[in-house]
Design goal:
Elements (H helix, E strand, L loop, with lengths): L6 H17 L1 H4 L1 H12 L3 H4 L1 H12 L10 H9 L4 H29 L2 H12 L18 H13 L19 H17 L26 H12 L2 H22 L1 H7 L5 H26 L5 H21 L3 H29 L5 H16 L2 H12 L3 H38 L1
Helix pairs in contact: 1-6, 1-7, 3-7, 5-17, 6-7, 7-14, 9-10, 11-17, 12-16, 12-17, 12-19, 13-14, 14-16, 15-16, 15-19
Length: 430
């Protein structure tokens, strides 16, 4: 066991990142799989899109395969970091973006070299590499790590006649961290219980039982579950889950139809796959920079989400109206950049909204909701391409959805700023 934010914790982050890299292989290659299933099954686009859709939704709804991919690596990484949580989780999201950069090209090369069933076998064998990434996964105890154990040892060694100085707390730039609260809770209780002060000590007062209720570790599982379920219905978390579902759904549709969309506009083969690569590059850029922006407080989470959805709306308009190749590539780049930043920001913001015990349930519920929404992809894609005959109206509808979500985040940003100004005025008057 080790302390939070230590070098050993970075090894955990690297292991989780490698696990995520291989776990997202099929999801990131679904545009190639989409075309491969159409050729192998001689199916229309609605029927062919069910297989990639199931690989996405079942990985977020079931407890098998890549189901843990959307929750466990991020929860494990969040437990090991406080000060650098955004950067550490950014490493995981960066590996996700790298997976989207590498595996579409690998899948396309395999599809051109082998029969499609053989391609599926090869990709499945590559996914077994995830097992090698499960070695380094836990280096801090659930109660807060050795940071509290060191404090306890120093206090116990000092004896009853003198009390050791309490080390100054480590400050994190981003507030409302559930790990900071958990660490403080455990250290305070350990410090209080280790003091061997007599009851006749001047000024000593036995604290009431209510003061220990917040520090109690005997909360029943049903109470914890009820508290976690109550956190799911909060307005902030519901808004965050809805925004993430919209961004993930539309982003997955853009990636899924990229090769077919390129073929419709006269760009086939690797030219069409290059649009997926551009999307992955934008995703990579966003996931490297988003953690830095949030950790160093260069942008608030609400403001970042506002900009992400505004950029997604503009990119969807470009893809719907413009048919020049390099503009399409640029549009896919900005779609990947804005969607990747929005998805990553939503996970970090959810970690700050929830405490340590309710975070897995909250993240699972957010991913569950996103997975359920993805079941709408096949009929929507089939209607847009097989019935209407073009993806342009679908992309225009996405632009309208982005604009609506952008409006909600604009209202939220304005409301938070007004509340902050009101609080500052009250403090000035006092």
């Amino acid at each position: 066991m080790t302390q939070l934010d230590s070098m050993a914790c970075w090894a955990v982050a690297a292991s989780c990142a490698l696990h995520t890299f291989f776990g997202m292989m099929l999801v990131k290659s679904e545009s190639v799989m989409y075309v491969g299933f159409m050729d192998m099954l001689h199916a229309n686009r609605e029927d062919a899109s069910w297989s990639p859709t199931l690989s996405v939704t079942m990985s977020q709804l079931a407890g098998l395969g890549a189901a843990c991919e959307g929750v466990v690596p991020y929860t494990v990484t969040a437990r090991h970091f406080v000060r650098y949580r955004g950067v550490a989780m950014g490493i995981l999201f960066t590996s996700t973006a790298l997976s989207g950069f590498v595996f579409p090209l690998v899948a396309e090369a395999l599809r051109q070299a082998f029969e499609f069933p053989t391609v599926l076998f090869i990709l499945g064998a590559l996914q077994l590499s995830m097992l090698l990434c499960c070695i380094v996964v836990d280096r801090v105890p659930p109660g807060g790590g050795e940071a509290c154990g060191d404090a306890e040892s120093s206090i116990a060694d000092s004896g009853s006649s003198e009390v050791a100085a309490v080390p100054p707390p480590v400050q994190r730039g981003q507030a409302n961290s559930f790990l900071t609260a958990s660490l403080a809770q455990t250290c305070v209780r350990t410090y209080a219980e280790s003091l061997s002060l007599p009851k006749s000590f001047p000024g000593f007062q036995q604290p009431p039982d209510e003061s220990y209720s917040l520090l109690s570790e005997e909360e029943s599982r049903w109470s914890r579950l009820a508290r976690g379920l109550r956190s799911l219905v909060s307005l902030d978390l519901s808004h965050l889950a809805t925004s993430r579902a919209v961004s993930l759904f539309t982003f997955s549709v853009f990636v899924l139809v990229a090769v077919d969309f390129g073929a419709d506009n006269g760009f086939a083969g690797y030219q069409a796959v290059a649009m997926v690569t551009a999307c992955a590059v934008g995703d990579l850029v966003a996931r490297i920079g988003t953690g830095l922006l949030l950790d160093f407080d260069l942008l608030k989470g609400d403001t970042l989400m506002l900009w992400c959805f505004a950029i997604q709306a503009a990119s969807a308009v470009v893809l719907a109206l413009v048919k020049q190749y390099w503009l399409l590539v640029a549009g896919y780049f900005f779609v990947g950049m804005s969607a990747g930043s929005a998805i990553m920001s939503s996970t970090i913001m959810a970690a700050d909204l929830c405490d340590q015990e309710t975070l897995p349930l909250s993240l699972g519920a957010i991913h569950f909701f996103s997975g359920v929404v993805c079941f709408a992809r096949p009929p929507i894609i089939g209607y847009a391409r097989d019935t209407i005959g073009s993806y342009d109206l679908l992309f225009a509808a996405f632009a309208i959805a982005y604009a609506a979500v952008t409006l909600t985040w604009a209202v939220r940003v304005c409301w938070h700023r007004c509340r902050s100004r009101r609080r500052d005025k009250i403090l000035e008057l006092n």
